[in-house]
Design a protein that fits this description.
With 477 residues, the chain is of the alpha/beta class. It has helices at residues 20-38, 54-62, 67-84, 102-114, 168-176, 185-196, 227-231, 234-237, 245-250, 263-276, 308-315, 317-327, 338-364, 378-396, 400-421, 430-447, 453-465, and strands at residues 4-9, 42-49, 91-94, 118-128, 133-135, 140-141, 144-145, 153-162, 181-183, 202-203, 205-207, 216-217, 220-225, 255-259, 284-288, 291-293, 296-297, 334-335. The chain has a six-stranded parallel beta sheet with strand order 3-2-1-14-15-9, sandwiched between helices. Helix 12 (317-327) crosses helix 13 (338-364), helix 13 packs antiparallel against helix 16 (430-447) and helix 14 (378-396) runs antiparallel to helix 15 (400-421). Bound molecules: 5'-O-[(L-methionyl)-sulphamoyl]adenosine. 5'-O-[(L-methionyl)-sulphamoyl]adenosine (MSP) is lined by residues 10-13, 21-22, 24-25, 50, 231-232, 234, 258-259, 261-262, 290-291, 297-299.
Length: 477
């Protein structure tokens, strides 16, 4: 039987339109998904939208729209973004989907209750609507949330609580022993140090009178299920947990891709829920950093977002994918500026990959030589093999920016080879030289396939039909 592979992104809130921070996560997960699919694995790639909670209810009311209507519009935009970026997701789950998502959430709730892991308690504390989380003084600077720069709400209410503390040692052990592996290692240490301060039980519901936009607590319609207890279950509900065939086939998830701000939920609450349900834990959580603008996180709340649709329209999906994967170190923060984008575009895509393909195709346009099965010169083949291996290893270790460097090594090698060998000149080795280049371009097309799917196809097609069209027209700055 084919090996299965299950990967997910976080599901973005639909309080505001998507920005390129969301695009980064889509694209990183897509590279992994495509790469596993190319290895022949039966790949399930999930993304979706997180549509309940205070933040969204507030955004809808600010627009004077009924919440459902409001979320329908923005969820559609996120789906549109996935399409525009050529994301190869197998499914898209929406937490407002009462047929597909709600039943699993209700089953999870009832299971937790059966287990004795839910109890009622009067709660008093701070709540950040931006984070959709109960926070403490430690999360504040000058009385404001460190991430959102907004003042938290003071809340005093009766809630259902989840006994997360009960699973503290099991969770710690799972992280320490990499049963649930957190990549990069620095984030794992961060989580272990967070857990070492003690895991508190978490509020899993809000009073319905204060927050009606969400899934009602089964058997207690005065309460709404807390948005994270609802959202995390998306990874199961899409597989039709508990009885679905897909659930039996694909669970546990192989990789959850998430941003650093939400690792805490994925590395504590989520394994806690799964332990309570007696389900195996996901194998890996890959944590990426933020796209910043001038050192600050790009976010709607800070008003510094960059619209991915505009960039895609102007430069094409692959150019946007390339920038995000090459310029932002996969597990760290990186800055977005239009200048950097143009620089990368012109240097690496127009003058680099695009120019090489055009040059080689020009050489073969009339000759129509067949593409050899391997490079005709062993030294040439060695360079390709070496970088291919390094590229694969980098993808496996989530170092996408480095993987691209290895591919671009091959491109640069070809450029230098052309300068040195002058394959346009009549020479007894001319055929060999062109053959090497033809083979290399085909290999480059395969190497970039997970990163730049459209470009990869175009190159292969141009090779087949011996036609040449610019892949990345140069942009004047
Ligand atoms: N709804 C929750 C996730 C629930 S998963 C069960 C959420 N939504 S979000 O819209 O705020 O963020 C969605 C993802 O996008 C997160 O992984 C988050 O880290 C990521 N990003 C949001 N802004 C980002 C940047 N500026 N840069 C990179 N990624 C960012 O959290």
């Amino acid at each position: 039987m084919e090996k299965k592979f299950y990967i997910s992104t976080a599901i973005p809130y639909v309080n505001a339109p998507a920005h390129i921070g969301h695009a980064l996560e889509f694209v990183q997960a897509d590279v992994i998904a495509r790469w596993h699919r190319r290895k022949g694995e039966d790949t399930f790639f999930l993304t979706g939208t997180d549509e309940h909670g205070a933040k969204i209810a507030k955004a809808a009311s600010q627009q004077n729209l009924p919440p459902q209507k409001f979320v329908d519009g923005i969820a559609e935009q996120f789906q549109e973004l996935a399409r525009a970026l050529n994301i190869s997701n197998t499914d898209f789950i929406r937490t407002t989907d009462q047929k597909r998502h709600w039943p699993s959430v209700e089953v999870v709730w009832k299971e937790l209750q059966k287990k004795g892991d839910l109890y009622e308690k009067e709660y008093e504390g701070l709540y950040c609507v931006g984070c959709e989380a109960f926070i403490t003084q430690k999360d504040l600077a000058d009385g404001k949330c460190k991430i959102h720069g907004t003042e938290p709400e003071h809340i005093k209410e009766r809630n259902w609580f989840f006994r997360l503390s009960k699973y503290e040692s099991q969770i710690r052990e799972a992280l320490e022993k990499d049963i649930l592996r957190i990549v990069p290692e620095t984030r794992k240490r961060e989580m272990l140090s967070f857990i070492s301060e003690g895991l508190q039980d978490v509020s899993f519901s809000r009073p319905r009178k204060d927050l009606a936009w969400g899934i009602p607590v089964p058997g207690d319609d005065t309460q709404t299920i807390y948005v994270w207890a609802d959202a995390l279950v998306n990874y199961l509900s899409v597989l039709e947990y508990p009885d679905g065939k897909k659930f039996k086939k694909y669970w546990p998830a192989d990789i959850h891709v998430v941003g650093k701000d939400i690792l805490r939920f994925h590395a504590t609450i989520w394994p806690g829920i799964l332990f309570a349900l007696n389900l195996p834990l996901p194998r890996v959580i890959f944590v990426h950093g933020f796209i910043n603008v001038g050192g600050e996180k790009m976010s709607k709340s800070l008003g510094n977002t960059v619209d991915p649709f505009q960039l895609i329209e102007e430069y094409g999906a692959d150019a946007v994918r390339y920038f995000l994967l090459r310029e932002i170190p996969s597990a760290e923060d990186g800055d977005f500026t239009e200048e950097k984008f143009q620089e990368r575009y012109n240097a690496d895509l127009a003058n680099g990959l695009g120019n090489l393909v055009a040059r080689v195709l020009k050489l073969v346009l009339n000759a129509q030589p067949p593409i050899p099965k391997s490079a005709l010169t062993p030294g040439f083949q060695k360079i390709i093999d070496k970088n291919k291996r390094a590229c694969d290893k980098a993808i496996e270790e989530f170092r996408f920016n480095e993987a691209l460097v290895f591919i671009w090594n091959v491109i640069r090698y070809c450029d230098r080879y052309i300068e040195r060998e002058r394959p346009w000149e009549k020479h007894e080795r001319q055929e060999k030289r062109i053959g090497n280049l033809l083979f290399a371009i085909q290999e480059i097309a395969r190497l970039v396939a997970s990163f730049l799917p459209e470009t990869s196809q175009k190159i292969l097609q141009q090779l087949q039909t011996n036609t040449s069209q610019p892949l990345f027209p140069r942009k004047e700055t």
